[in-house]
Structure formats: structure tokens, C-alpha cells
Amino acid sequence: MSKSPATQARPLSPHLTIYKPLITMTMSIIHRITGGALYFGTLLVAFWLIAAATSEQYFDFVSWVFGSWIGRLILFGYTWALMQHLMGGIRHLIWDTGVGLEKRTASKIAWATVIASVALTVLIWVAGYMARGM
Amino acid sequence: MADMRTPLKKVRGLGSAREGTEHFWRQRLTAIANIPLTLFFIGLLVSLNGASYAEVRSALANPFVALILAMFLISGLYHMRLGMQVIIEDYVHGEGGKLALIVLNTFFTIAVGVASLFALLKIAFGG
């Protein structure tokens, strides 16, 4: 290839910032972010299991951390991330069969994953508090 | 002896990453497994909310619970390792940094997995 000095800015193909945020695009980004968050969330699972295997003192300490307001906030976020990633994952598995890729259908499914993940998160926490009450 | 295979034979099904569709397939396989396993994990945590140390240990010592939880950990960790690898490959462009992070990704996954499974087995075997 011959070398030619760039005398002006070369045109770039349009990237993220140029598009109006669409629900399918937003949920695709959120799928990746929740996946990344869940990656580090596994530390919480390991923390809990190790505590249960170590001693009552350590377990009570971990329970105290998880039960604090910041602990609950993190666990609530973790629950939602897990549910959103689960719903988004089911969406991908549906797409893998070649179904639901039409523009309007894809947007509807994307919205459905948000509604389902929020509803499931609330349901899980209500069930959790009910289990605690009994 | 000269290699008799044609260039096409050597690359067929491998692609540029030399692993063919294996990454994609395992991502999907673990994704499918993760659906019921995650629901079980959530159900277990809901039922154990506010439970004492003894109650949690006796629940985790149940062979059925321990086995399903072990499968959840293995499938989930494998899935997240594959996912993080794609994220690294997408955003880290320097070869050295990319390689280092891919190595760390595997180390992290194995460390979390071994620690969690050891803890689970210790409880399951009454330790």
C-alpha cells in the first residue's frame, strides 16, 4: 500500500455515541454489564460458603455484613443483575433458533426482559422476607 | 515426512482463534444449564434467609443440595470465564495486556471455584 500523508481527519464509521439509544441496544449493553457484575458477584457466593465452612463466628460476621443496609443494597443489585442476565440470556437462546429477530418483536422482547427481571427481583425479595418472618 | 494435509484441511472448522465454534457452543451449553441451576440457587437462598449457622450447614450438607450447588458453581463459573474472555478480547487491544488478563481470568475463575467447592464439600462431608 502506498503511503499518503493524512492531511485531514479521516472519516470514521459511526459508533455508539451517534445513535439514538434503542431498547435492543441498551439491553445488549446491560447484558454485558450485568454479566461483568455477576463475575465479581461470585466472590459473595464464595465468601458465604467459606464462612459456613469455617466457624459460627465467621458465619455470623458474614451474615452481619450481608444484612447491613449496604450489604442488602449490594445483594438486591446482585439479584436484579442475575435476573436481568437470566432473562437476557433466554432472549439470546430464543434468537439462536432464528426466531424473534424482527425489529418490533426484538424491541418487545427487550422490554419484556426488563419487566420480568424487575418483577422477579421484587418477588424474590418479598419471598425472602416472608421466609424470614416464618 | 512431509505433511500431506491440504491447507484447507488444516483450518477447516477452526477459525482464526483455532478453536472453531467450541467457545460459542460451551457458552450456550452452560447458559442452558444455568437456567434451572440459578433458579435452584435463588430458591435455596430465599428459603435460608435469616437461617442460623446450624440450619445453613445442615441444608448445605444435604447431598441433593450440595450436588446441585456444585453443578451451579461449575457451570456458572465456566460460563462467566467464557463471557469475561470475550469482554477482554473486545476491549483490550494490546497483545501483552490481553494475554495477561486472559490468564488472570482463568486463575480467578479457578480460585473462586476451588475455594467454593472445597467449602461446600467440607460441609457436605461433615467437616
UniProtKB/TrEMBL annotation, chain A:
Just give the chief location class: membrane
What processes in GO biological process is this protein linked to?
tricarboxylic acid cycle
Any Gene Ontology CC annotation: membrane
Q: Which residues cross the membrane?
A: 37-55, 61-83, 109-131
InterPro entries per UniProt: SQR/QFR_C/D, Succ_DH_cyt_bsu_CS, Succ_DH_cytb556, SuccDH_FuR_B_TM-su
Q: Which Pfam families match?
A: Sdh_cyt
**Has keyword Transmembrane helix?**
yes
Task: Locate the residues binding heme.
Answer: 85
Query: What is known about its subunit structure?
Result: Part of an enzyme complex containing four subunits: a flavoprotein, an iron-sulfur protein, plus two membrane-anchoring proteins, SdhC and SdhD. The complex can form homotrimers.
**Keywords tagged on the record:** Heme, Iron, Membrane, Metal-binding, Transmembrane, Transmembrane helix
Q: Where in the cell is it found?
A: Membrane
Query: Which GO molecular function annotations are given, in alphabetical order?
Result: electron transfer activity; metal ion binding
- Membrane-topology annotation of the record: Multi-pass membrane protein
The answer to whether the entry has keyword Cell membrane is: no
This one is known as: Succinate dehydrogenase cytochrome b556 subunit
Family membership, please give it: Belongs to the cytochrome b560 family.
Q: What does this protein do?
A: Membrane-anchoring subunit of succinate dehydrogenase (SDH).
**Cofactor(s) essential for the protein:** heme
- What does the cofactor field's note say? The heme is bound between the two transmembrane subunits.
Automatic annotation (TrEMBL), chain B:
Pathway membership of this protein?
A: Carbohydrate metabolism; tricarboxylic acid cycle
The main location class comes to: membrane
For this UniProt record, the keywords arranged alphabetically read as follows: Electron transport, Heme, Iron, Membrane, Metal-binding, Transmembrane, Transmembrane helix, Transport, Tricarboxylic acid cycle
Q: Which domain of life is it from?
A: Bacteria
Q: Which CDD domains match?
A: SQR_TypeC_SdhD_like (cd03495)
Q: How does it assemble?
A: Part of an enzyme complex containing four subunits: a flavoprotein, an iron-sulfur protein, plus two membrane-anchoring proteins, SdhC and SdhD.
Protein name per its UniProtKB record: Succinate dehydrogenase hydrophobic membrane anchor subunit
| Gene it is expressed from | sdhD
